[in-house]
Amino acid sequence: MPHLPEHLLTGYRNFMSGRYPTESGRYRSLAREGQAPETMIVACCDSRSAPEAIFDAGPGELFVLRNVGNLVPPYEPDGEYHSTSAALEFAVQSLKVKNIVVMGHGRCGGIRAALDTNSAPLSPGDFIGKWMSLIAPAAETVAASTMMTATERQTALERISIRYSIANLRTFPCVSILEGKGRLSLHGAWFDISTGELWVMNKETGDFERPEL
């Protein structure tokens, strides 16, 4: 019995014989000097929407935080355990990133769970339900709309949740202060898994638009 699944070991062998030799100097530099990414990505942990692949990023270029539904909770210094807030704090205060991008995606299971108020919890702890309750007000409003199809409701909430997370980012003093000084910029994006299209949020209107390629 291998200590890792065989497909992971195969992937690592391919990495060591292919990509690593061409980027070994970069890895050695990162090990010696540390990381200094300019951009943090808050993305969903869905296996189909990996930011490093979507943005064709090399090692050390992106500081990536992934959680269910790419959500950012509001600032709550209550002494509890806050992994998303901890990663944000490290990115802003220690790494001094210049950009934070909240990137949602189509067909998000977390968003679907937020819309399906009749679904049973996956476990007694209902951790996903509690986490997705961060966007409960928007989910209830969107779910109640009979003018949209189920697919339209899901896409709408996926994009609304991005705006929610950006608003929550601004509740963190370290974020709002640096944004006010022009040293930190907040962005929203939505990735369509089926087509590969990336939609970027217009900062002035909140609309999602296709960038020119």
Automatic annotation (TrEMBL):
The keyword Zinc applies. It catalyses: hydrogencarbonate + H(+) = CO2 + H2O. Keywords: Lyase, Metal-binding, Zinc. InterPro entries: Beta_CA_cladeB, Carbonic_anhydrase, Carbonic_anhydrase_CS, Carbonic_anhydrase_sf. One of its GO terms (molecular function) is carbonate dehydratase activity. Its EC number is 4.2.1.1. It holds the Pfam family Pro_CA. Reversible hydration of carbon dioxide. Belongs to the beta-class carbonic anhydrase family. This is Carbonic anhydrase.
